[in-house]
Design brief:
single chain; about 280 residues; mainly alpha; Hypothetical protein af1432
């Protein structure tokens, strides 16, 4: 197979029509999330326009996880019960999951979103645990592997070669991506999210989530996502043939002053949050 050049790969990724823009609801939710002056009314104003997002928020708000002592029947009530950030995270998750609803070829899409949601949930918990001056952990965690969906859906022959090479040579998928494409899913994710005009703190963290200290401007956020990515692998690997994991950067763990006991203390929260995934990905019926 004639290898794609990096420039040709980048051009093809950027020209994919269905990836060229994000739906307005996602952009507006991101704008609200990045606006320190926003309040619950701004969140509700954006969410109530989408009945699917609204239904899923209310379904989760009325779940046993939150233990409401009355029926939650409006987004504003959900915000009071669950918190501003939690409702935003659910809305963003539903929007992203539905945006990329097309079945994947080389891996299980539900398991892929399980990994991304676990990474997002872990990153959000970690940023609070270490008192990081950032609130973007959930967003980056949710989108950190978006480049893999692009490769799987839009470059199926190359991605099949990557998976086959990783299995045959006993190398990580990350290394196989470099050998086959000359770039990795991190680069592809960066190209796509930059095309969406997401803020550099998000796009850079996606680009460097496997090499956090290469990201000079937001290495703390990138380290949080790097650690969250590693931790979320405990919930399962969405590509079953990935026998060799991508290397971990121990410096990121040291930067966040994390040890096994601190990480284990997050496990119960993350496990309970994962129970929401079927609601977020599936129908509202």
């Amino acid at each position: 197979m004639a290898a794609l050049t990096v420039s040709a790969l980048k051009e093809r990724a950027e020209r994919i029509k269905e990836l060229s823009t994000l739906p307005g609801v996602i952009l507006r939710i991101l704008e609200v999330m990045n606006n320190p002056m926003a309040d619950a009314r701004d969140v509700e104003r954006e969410i109530v326009e989408d009945p699917v997002i609204t239904a899923k928020i209310l379904k989760i708000a009325n779940s046993a996880f939150y233990g409401a002592n009355r029926d939650i029947s409006s987004v504003s009530q959900a915000v009071v019960l669950m918190g501003f950030a939690e409702v935003q995270n659910i809305a963003l998750s539903v929007s992203i999951f539905s945006r990329f609803a097309e079945p994947t070829r080389m891996f299980d899409r539900h398991q892929f979103w399980e990994h991304c949601f676990a990474t997002a949930t872990t990153a959000e918990a970690l940023q609070r645990r270490v008192n990081a001056q950032t609130n973007e952990g959930f967003v980056v965690g949710l989108l950190h592997d978006i480049g893999r969906i692009v490769l799987d859906q839009q470059f199926p022959n190359e991605f099949r070669e990557i998976v086959t090479l990783a299995e045959a040579r006993k190398i990580s998928l990350l290394e196989a991506e470099r050998r086959v494409l000359g770039v990795t899913h991190c680069d592809v994710g960066y190209w796509v999210t930059e095309k969406w005009n997401l803020p550099p703190i998000l796009t850079d963290s996606i680009l460097f989530h496997h090499t956090p200290f290469s990201c000079r401007e937001s290495y703390v956020l990138t380290s949080i996502v790097h650690v969250a990515d590693a931790v979320s692998k405990a919930f399962g690997n969405y590509i079953k043939k990935e026998a060799v994991p991508s290397p971990k950067d121990e410096s990121a763990f040291r930067l966040l002053n994390l040890d096994s006991d601190k990480l284990m203390s997050l496990a119960d929260l993350i496990s309970k949050k994962m129970e929401h995934l079927d609601i977020l990905v599936g129908s509202v019926a």
